[in-house]
Amino acid sequence: MPRGLSWDVFVPGDDLPRRVATDYVVSEGELVAVDGEQWLVERVVMPEESEGDGVVPLVYVEPPHEPL
Which residues, including other chains, have CB under 8 Å from residue 17's CB and lie 6 or more apart? Predict the structure, then answer.
């Protein structure tokens, strides 16, 4: 199981991403906690320079959908 994964999460309304650490791989359509709030992952982008240390995937989120 992966451990200590880092993600740069872009929350709507923020100018800069927030660094989030998880022990699992974040994927589209699931919820991720950012500073205690749940967000729905819209998309995950791996930077082209994905080889080597220090490269962090980008995660774009949106508010979770409310049940109808």
Answer: 8, 9, 10, 11, 58
CA pair distance 4, 25, nearest whole angstrom: 10
Beta pairing, strands 37-45 & 18-22: unpaired
**Rounded-to-5 percentages of helix, strand, coil across the chain:** 0, 45, 55
- Regarding beta strands 5-10 and 58-62, do their DSSP bridges make them parallel or antiparallel, or are they unpaired? parallel
Reported pTM:
0.81
Cα gap 38→36, rounded to integer Å: 7
The region, left, alpha or beta by phi > 0 then psi within -120 to 50, assigned to residue 23 is: alpha
| pLDDT tens-digit series, residues 23-53 | 999 999 999 999 999 999 999 998 876 555 6
